[in-house]
Amino acid sequence: MLERKRLSGWWYDRRLRGWLAQAALVAAIAVACAYVAGNTVENLQRQGIASGFAFFSSEAGFGILQSLIDYDETATYGRAFLVGLLNTLLVAGVGIVLATLIGFVMGVARLSSNWLVARLAALYIEAVRNVPLLLQLFFWYFGVLRALPSPRDSVNLFDAVFLNIRGLYLPSVLAEPGFEWLVAAVAAGFGVAATVAWWARRRRLRTGKPFPSLRVALSGVIGLPLLAAWITGFPLRFEYPELSGFNFVGGLVLVPEFVALVLALSIYTGAFIAEIARAGILSVSRGQTEAALALGLSPRLTLRLVVIPQALRVIIPPLTSQYLNLTKNSSLAAAIAYPELVSVFAGTVLNQTGQAIEVIAITMAVYLTISLLIAGFMNFYNRRMALVER
Amino acid sequence: MKLCGFHQAIALACLFSFSLPVHSGVTLDAVRAKGFIQCGVNQGLPGFSNPDDAGQWSGLDVDFCRALAAALFGDSEKVKFTPLSAKGRLTALQSGEIDVLSRNTTWTLTRDTALGLHFAGVIYYDGQGFMVRRDLGVESARDLNGASVCVHTGTTSELNLADYFRANGMKYTPVVFEKADESVAAYDSGRCDVLTTDQSQLYGQRLKLKDLEVHKVLPEVISKEPLGPVVRQGDDEWFNVVKWTLFAMINAEELGVTSANAAGLRASATDPNVRRLLGVEGDKGRDLGLSNDWALDIVRMVGNYGEVFERNLGAQTPLKIERGLNQLWNRGGIMYAPPIR
Amino acid sequence: MEAFATRGSAPPASRVTPLEWLRANLFSSPANTLLTLASAYVLYLAMPPLVSWSLIHADWAGTTREDCTGGGACWVFVRARFDQFMYGFYPHEERWRVDLAFGLLALLAALVLVRRFPFRKWSAVVLIVAYPPTAYLLFVGGALGLPHVETARWGGLSLTLVIAGVGMAASFPLGVLLALGRRSALPAVRLASVVFIEFWRGVPLITVLFMASVMLPLFLPEGVTLDKLLRALIGVALFQSAYMAEVVRGGLQAVPKGQVEAAAALGLGYWKTMGLVVLPQALRHVIPGIVNTFIALFKDTTLVLIIGLFDLLGIVQAAITDPKWLGMSVEGYMFAGLGFWIFCFAMSRYSQYIERRLAVDRPRR
């Protein structure tokens, strides 16, 4: 009789070892956390540092350069946090839009048949990608924007737009009575555009007839507000910036810190997006274009219906990760004087209250939330767009 | 994997070799064991703490740390300087990275309480002021409505600025920088109309401007900024040593003891105050945990308060700051030290 | 027989004359012509002033600001402070130690990377085992007769290389462990790895540096103080390990499942499988990815200037604010930019070369 030799003993049971390893890991993590937490509590008590989140309702006492919501020195630290957060979102939003534009233009330029344009785009991409973002930010802020003239000698465009070292001053739009109708008309225009697009797509899928939905959408989005404005008698007033005393008052001002940050972020991220766009376009095999042309599609339709959808599948994942990088890189505003979340909250508020742990933990939590949201969206998009394969 | 484990062990060994062995809670013992004082100073403020090209530090705050070293070790060179930004200065002290912070820091309630620190006296009575360009034609801070103001983050200046403008019903645009140098450069390039910080700093940073004559300091002093050395709470002996080093320097000037005559006075003085100061009578040094020559060493190696002030901020220096409030109490100022007895 | 002469003739040479090339590449259509003219105009606006400022009217010789009389760039500033840009505040007489440390690194790296050298494996072992303690000793000193140089005096390009190098070296083993953990079958290990990776990837490096420099002292027992540079290194290493984990994970996914199955059939346990079969194959695939993360880390080291360390950018900034050299900001930033650009461009070219070589090397299946 053949005797089967069995490895006996509980140590050789793979499942048991797996559980033991996990238990050991969990225990080690728990011990480390307890050690750290214990030390922290003891250190905080010993140094007499306050803790807790009560500081959110204390008075801030400092001013902020740029704020999207009302803020003055009597506001609370909580409001200062909100101001910083909104500034971060603003910089991230504007930066993402600009970076995408610059990136796609440069990516397409890099693939151009025009030798000079292709080389210039390659030069831009290679030059910008290999220099640190902080250095580029310093270059724009301390090098370029500091060289602008003083307010008295501003660059003057039609007496409405002024450019000087304190910022770019634009006329702002003030609401008169009846402005709500304009806003409603814009919203209605978007609604009409979306409905028309949805209906036109269904009709095309069912019957194959095309519909100029883009033109209709544009006319809705632009025409309806114009119509509303005409009916209500143009309820808009422009407020022009004027030099009074030290600086310009009135109008809308883009401070050089904001401009430098957005410029540096867009140009830097745009170079990476250009490479992503180029890789995406190159990933669509030439056979697709040839087949589409053979079927009689015009080059524009080929691009719109065949090439770009397939290129987007390759482009979107790394593109969202670049958007995430841009949002995280906006924290570099701490190095120039722009008041976004890190420099206002993890900077000034941290200094004034001394509560390092709460402040930094909240800042990290905010960025973590943003990045998890974007990662979640990317997973959702990937699942929807995944090629259905056997 | 074996290599990685070895590599990790090396890294761990390096980690622990970096930590300074410190006896828990008793800074004085730790400093004695180390053999030098770790002193936190400004990264570069002419007159207070400024490194020259060769890395030698000089200034009022620097000289105070040297006086501390002289009191503790009898050698004013037994001190190492850690340059700190306004932002990191208090956390560096709280965490134990430095033993004493001598970095033009204002004494406030919050710093005494919520931040867990002790101020060991006032070494310089200062106030916040404004600097503008002469060609703006501004004579007083009340005319600054609508101005953009460059200020340094993490300082009381930011808060005082907000309070002053609010109290006077004026508006302003704050441009807040991480480093003092950046706020000065921004003001110099015209990014803002006004530079605001402690007056002593205005005089010091003014030296970094392109053209001194183009700027002027407005007369208003909008806040009280008593600057002094800071230590952590929880070590009373160290606190006493730091406190009485400062008072010894002030008392020395009051009693006419200078670096030149200190040694001679030790032998020949008849005034009981001088004799107590220089350790001829009484055991004041021992009471502090130091040698009885502590004050003699301070004055001999570094100088009394007046000498230190003149050397760093006086008429012979580019700063040319008047004694003003920092003159002795019996000569028109408010520098007043408790007696050594 | 003449008709079947087999003496081959060379193919016709390319008959593209310069004019034809211009026509095909630059002026092939009205739109292209317009683009070419516009780009040429932009170049015309930008290049001559740049060249004239930075090269023709620039001042190269001298020692003080007064020697800058040409009206162009003042490279005297860069030359005068060059040592400081390279070594920071490292004592003058000890600079040979820094040179020796980096020289050894370059030598060992060349021995490992250049394919034709023999003893590549031994060089790799020496590099990983013996070099770190030697470099540490050379930099810090305090033993074997080398005077101690405190980390507050390190700065400039050497500090940038130290931070990037140590960050990379420390994050590599941790990243590999995390990547293996993320693919593990054990749920607790996988959860811990995922949480760790997503946390460090989701926060900006600046907050990590703030956390390391401000909060780390609070996490340690009373009396233990960490050097400021060490805190920054810990933060950088933890941050980088998450990105490294993702890169290695991509490599692990590229190893065919058959390899693991074959190793199991041979009776190899988990760690032996990973160490002897999977990781060598996986890591070969991810070398370009690792070089790319190194480039990103190299650029990110500039952030340490915000917590008060003087890397290349930090020391250039400090030099610019020196009252003796006012107004040199553009020269300073251009020098720093050039320095970073040279390193990063060289590394990215190397990474592309490795990628091409790997694509050729991989045997067809």
Question: What order do the helices and strands come in, and which of them pair?
Answer:
The complex is a heterotrimer of chains A (390), B (341) and C (365).
Chain A: H1 14-47, H2 77-110, H3 115-129, H4 133-144, E1 155-157, E2 161-164, E3 167-170, E4 172-175, H5 179-207, H6 213-232, E5 236-239, E6 242-244, E7 247-249, E8 252-254, H7 256-283, H8 286-294, H9 299-329, H10 341-353, H11 356-385
Antiparallel strand pairs in A: 1-2, 2-3, 3-8, 4-5, 6-7
Helix pairs in contact in A: 2-3, 2-7, 2-10, 3-7, 4-7, 5-6, 7-9, 8-9, 9-11, 10-11
Chain B: H1 2-18, H2 27-34, E1 37-42, E2 50-51, E3 57-58, H3 60-73, E4 79-84, H4 89-95, E5 100-106, H5 109-112, E6 117-119, E7 124-126, E8 128-133, E9 147-152, H6 156-167, E10 172-177, H7 180-189, E11 194-198, H8 199-205, E12 215-217, E13 225-232, H9 236-254, H10 262-268, H11 272-277, H12 284-288, H13 294-301, H14 305-313
Parallel strand pairs in B: 1-4, 1-5, 9-10, 9-11
Antiparallel strand pairs in B: 2-3, 5-13, 6-13, 7-13, 8-11, 8-12
Chain C: H1 18-25, H2 30-56, H3 75-80, H4 82-87, H5 95-113, H6 120-140, H7 156-182, H8 187-202, H9 205-219, H10 228-254, H11 257-265, H12 270-300, H13 312-320, H14 329-361
What does this structure look like?
The complex is a heterotrimer of chains A (390), B (341) and C (365). Chain A is of the alpha+beta class and 390 residues long. Chain A has helices spanning 14-47, 77-110, 115-129, 133-144, 179-207, 213-232, 256-283, 286-294, 299-329, 341-353, 356-385, and strands spanning 155-157, 161-164, 167-170, 172-175, 236-239, 242-244, 247-249, 252-254. Chain A has a domain at 77-148 and 256-385: MetI-like (MetI-like fold). In chain A, 35% of the residues are buried. Chain B is α/β, with parallel strands linked by helices. Chain B has two domains: 20-125 and 226-331, Periplasmic binding protein-like II (D-Maltodextrin-Binding Protein, domain 2, 3-Layer(aba) Sandwich); 128-223, D-Maltodextrin-Binding Protein, domain 2, CATH 3.40.190. Helices cover 39% and strands 18% of the residues of chain B. Chain B contains 14 helices and 13 strands. Chain C has 365 residues and is mainly alpha-helical. Chain C has a domain at 155-361: Orthogonal Bundle (MetI-like fold). The chains are: A alpha+beta (390), B alpha/beta (341), C mainly alpha (365). Chains in contact: A-B, A-C, B-C. The interface between A and C is large, with 54 and 54 residues.
